Amino acid sequence: MTAYQGWWDVQVEVLGRSDSDGLALRQYATGAAFTDTAISHTQLHDAGLVMVGRPRTSPVLKSLDLQANPPTATIDDCLDVSDWHQADATTKEIKDPQQRLSRFPATAVLKKYGNRWLIADFTREVTKTC
Length: 130
Known about the structure:
- By secondary structure, the chain is an alpha+beta fold.
- It has a four-stranded antiparallel sheet with strand order 2-3-5-6.
- It starts with a helix and ends in a 6-residue tail after the last strand.
- The protein has one domain: Roll (Nuclear Transport Factor 2, Chain: A), CATH 3.10.450.
- The chain contains two helices and six strands; from the N terminus they run ααββββββ.
């Protein structure tokens, strides 16, 4: 759970700054999770936007397989982004899309490399609410 929360803390920091290069995401994510977050970072910055506020997480450990190579964990979450908004990078005026869910289920797959757990995949179920 520490790695998962750390990943969200770093996303809040990286996506909240217009001058961030996003490299801090590598401390917590790999594979598709890193790529998807890096793309979001680039798209926001290209549009002159940053994220303001903070999402709320409610992670629950769904499964843990320490015998897998690498060891794997799955976390289910009900992600609440009602206080996390897209905003103009200069004025901080909220620029959220018109249609957006404020709460939705999400699943994170973590893999352990050495002594570090990294988010390898993150799936949002944006057609559902929780």
